[in-house]
Amino acid sequence: MSTISSLQLKRPGWQTVVIFTLTFWLSTSLVLDLVIMPGLYASGMMSQSGFATAGYLIFWIFNRIELLCAALVLTGVLVVKRTQNTLVSQSRNAIGLAMILLTIALIFTYVLTPNMSALGLNIEVLDPVNAVPAGMGLLHQAYWILEVVKLIVGGAILSLFYRQN
């Protein structure tokens, strides 16, 4: 009985959880943006009618993973702020940056991906359209701006947590 009561559950090292989550999230984002999507474009898939549907499915799954990662990062930042004696300004900065990451993930999931997919769908089956819709350029610009901001903010949180380790 004494061996059971002497067992102690270890809390996860939340700094490590945040670092690994951000590393996974940012690296998969770079793979998607710099390898998978250009590969699909180079293979000629963008000219096919099912590209919008395939792109939506890819991003639907990835956006949900992004939401989980953003929530885990924000949770980790809040736990670290609560349990460790860190500098107040660093913890406020980290919380603000984590909230920016969550906001970006929400924008990707519920604004950009559905709108890009809706613009890319060809409703008229008999009349194929080969031109890119006019609003798609603006959505692509918004996507890339948010993607760069996500990488910068994620890198800032990584540097804050890496310095604390």
UniProtKB/TrEMBL annotation:
Spans traversing the lipid bilayer: 12-37, 57-80, 92-112, 142-162
Superkingdom classification of source: Bacteria
Keywords recorded for this protein, A-Z: Membrane, Transmembrane, Transmembrane helix
Name of this chain's protein: DUF4149 domain-containing protein
